[in-house]
């Protein structure tokens, strides 16, 4: 209904505006109507000459600025009583009648220390829900060269993860156990590897 009303009132209005513009243009062409006279154009002179200045008087009037005088040096102190004392505080050491053996402070013996621990890859064949954690408890030995061997799975929440956990431990590197300055086997090292699938 609204579009019909627009057509009924819009077509006569458009016709009236068109006829009015046509009559206005014909009156302008015949010369019956005159627009305002053009205003005088602004005159811009780009060839104006600059005035020359006399440089001889400028050089005569120039004066160099006077520099500030440097500050006077601090007064020298010749009074020896003004210097601080360098003796420090003297105190007597207490006498201890105890026989202590504090040693050298250096013990070369140490247990096996991990150097490189490569995390395992999440196995694609093991189905687990996102956010659920699976863990594998392993036991292994460290050789005098720092490599892992005799890897055994002690317990796991899902046996599907055992193989990938053991592969990860195979790539680990250790500083070997040192006893009396000699590298030795470190047996029965235990660790737990946790697998968790991040939610998407």
UniProtKB/TrEMBL annotation:
Residues 68-77 have a biased composition (Pro residues). It is found in: Cell inner membrane. One of its GO terms (biological process) is transmembrane transport. InterPro entries: TonB-dependent_transducer, TonB/TolA_C, TonB_C. Its main location: membrane. One of its GO terms (cellular component) is plasma membrane protein complex. Keywords: Cell inner membrane, Cell membrane, Membrane, Protein transport, Repeat, Transmembrane, Transmembrane helix, Transport. Residues 107-200 form the TonB C-terminal domain. It is a single-pass membrane protein. GO terms for molecular function: energy transducer activity. The chain crosses the membrane at residues 6-29. Residues 57-86 are annotated as: Disordered. It comes from the Bacteria. Signal peptide: none annotated. The keyword Cell inner membrane applies. Belongs to the TonB family. This is Protein TonB. It comes from Amphiplicatus metriothermophilus.
